[in-house]
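User: Predict the structure for this protein chain, please.
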Amino acid sequence: MPAHQPLPTTTTIENLLDLDSLLSAEDRDLRTMVRGFGEQRLRPQIAEWFEAGQVPVRELAAEIGKLGLLGMHLQGYGCSGSTATAYGLVCQELEAVDSGLRSLVSVQGSLAMFAIHRWGSEEQRTRWLPGMAAGELIGCFGLTEPDFGSNPGGMRTTARRDGSDWILNGSKMWITNASVADVAIIWARSKEGVLGFAVPTSTPGFHATEMTRKLSLRASVTSEIHLDDVRVPEDARLPEAQGLKAPLSCLSEARFGIVFGAVGAARDCLQTTLDYVGTRAVFDRPLAGYQLTQAKIADMAVELGKAQLLALHLGRLKDEGRIRPEQVSVGKLNNVREAIKIARQCRTLLGANGITLEYPVLRHANNLESVLTYEGTSEVHQLVIGEALTGVGAFR
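Assistant: Here is the predicted structure, written as C-alpha cells:
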C-alpha cells in the first residue's frame, strides 16, 4: 500500500504557541546557524558515533570553537559575551542532535571555562581561556567522586601544602572529556576548606581513563581521574574559590544549559514522531488519524511548549541578573522530567522502529536517563525547591 500523504498544515511544533515572537532576530539567526551546523555536520554521523561509543572531541571542539559557541556567554578572552538566552538556544539545538554534543559545549564553557573566568586569576584567564574558546584546548571539571555525587561536601580528594606547592591526591568519576583534556578543574578538600585548581593534565601523577560499556551518552567521552601525589604550584590554585559555593556556582551554570537542552531532545523526538505517524499505515489508515495517537501528540506538544516557555523565562531572568538557584532547579527538574516522558511516549508510537538507531528517539531517551541524574538528580532539585519554599533544609 502506498504511503499515506498527510494533509498540508501550517501549524508546527515550533509555531503552535508562536514562540518565535519571543525571540529577537539575532536569536533566531543564531538558532538557524547552529541548527544548520547540526543537520549538516553532526546528524549524519551521530548514530554511528553513538553505536561505536566514540566521538571526535578535539575535531568537533575546533569546529564549534570557530562558530564562537564555546564559553559564548562569558566576557572577554576570546568569548563573545552573548546573552544567556542565546546560549540556551545553542544548547537546545545541539541537544536536538544528541545530549553528548551539548554536554561537550556545556562542560567546556559552563563548567571548566566558567570556573576559570569567575574564580581564577587574571594570569589563569589569559593562559587558558582564549585557547579553550577556540576549541584548541579542552577542559574538564573534576568534582564528582566514586562515593560522592549528590553530596560533594563529602569529597575525599585532598590538597596539602608542601612549601610553595600543593599536593593533590584522590579520585574523580564520571568526568566528561577528562581523558582528552588539556586542563582539569579539580576540587579538593584542604585545611583552608574546599579549593579549586587548574591542573594541566600533563602533570606527573595525573591519570585519566575513559569509562566504557555505557548505555547512555555514548557520543560523549566519560572518564575517571586518579590523582597520585600531583604537585602543582600556588599559581594553579583558583584564588577566588574557597568553599563549596564556587563549584556549586559552576553547576548552576551548567544546569541552566540543560533547561534548554532537554527541550531540544524532546522536540527532536516529537518531530520525528509526527513525521512517522503521518506516513505509517495501520489497519489501512495513517497512524496519525487515530484519536489515541492525536491525544498523545497533543499532550506531548503542550508539555513541550510549557517547557520551552519556562526555559525562555529563566533565560530572561538570567539576562537581567535576577535568577536564583531554586529557579534553575525548577527548570532542570521539570524540563528533563518532561523530556524523558516525551521520548518514551514517542518510542511507543514508532513501535519496533523506535528501538533502532534509524530513528533518534530511544537514543534520546537513553541519553536523558543520564541528564536526569547529572548536575543534580531530580531528588536533589526537589529538595532545593522544597527548602526555598519551606525554609527548612531536608538534605540530611
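The chain has a mean pLDDT of 96.
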